[in-house]
């Protein structure tokens, strides 16, 4: 993995975190698919989703990474603070619980990467990007589901 790719992945994570922890209006839910779709397309295009030397192990680790990313993403999306401004605009903001789930997300990703390294399945960019896309999409879906239940202001 070269430094440019690591920087791109780090910038995407920072972008998502800034959006989660700085209060922001919840906009059109149709857009929640855009960034994950781009990340998946780039991840699949980069390849490395399945290690040729260990195809079964790499599929298992990729599936576990996607499952863990979806789980922690859903937890983060459910934990975000939601409110409506007097003008009716819906806002979302991260909190300490979201930060704790983010730490859990990093820890599970690191554990899976170490496990992969131990069994000879190196972490590849494509797998990281697909996992990141799953994490972002799960957060967005959880937030979208919750946002429909926030009552309108009177």
Automatic annotation (TrEMBL):
Query: Is Transmembrane helix found in the keyword set?
Result: yes
Q: What is this protein called?
A: DUF1453 domain-containing protein
Signal peptide, first to last residue = none
- Tell me which species this is from: Streptomyces polychromogenes
Look up keyword Membrane and say if it applies: yes
Concerning Pfam families, the annotation shows: DUF1453
Where does the chain cross the membrane?
6-22, 34-51, 57-77, 98-120, 126-145
| Keyword line | Membrane, Transmembrane, Transmembrane helix
């Amino acid at each position: 993995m070269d430094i440019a790719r690591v920087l791109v992945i780090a910038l995407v994570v920072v972008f998502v975190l800034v959006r989660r922890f700085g209060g922001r209006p919840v906009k059109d839910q149709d857009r929640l698919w855009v960034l994950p779709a781009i990340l998946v397309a780039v991840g699949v295009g980069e390849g490395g989703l399945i290690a040729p030397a260990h195809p079964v192990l790499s599929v298992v680790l990729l599936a576990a990474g996607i499952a863990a990313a979806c789980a922690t993403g859903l937890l983060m999306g459910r934990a975000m603070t939601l409110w409506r401004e007097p003008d009716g605009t819906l806002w979302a903001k991260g909190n300490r619980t979201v930060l704790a789930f983010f730490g859990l997300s990093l820890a599970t990703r690191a554990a899976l990467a170490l496990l992969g390294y131990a069994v000879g399945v190196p972490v590849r960019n494509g797998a990281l990007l697909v996992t990141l896309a799953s994490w972002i999409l799960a957060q967005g879906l959880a937030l979208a589901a919750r946002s429909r239940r926030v009552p309108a202001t009177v």
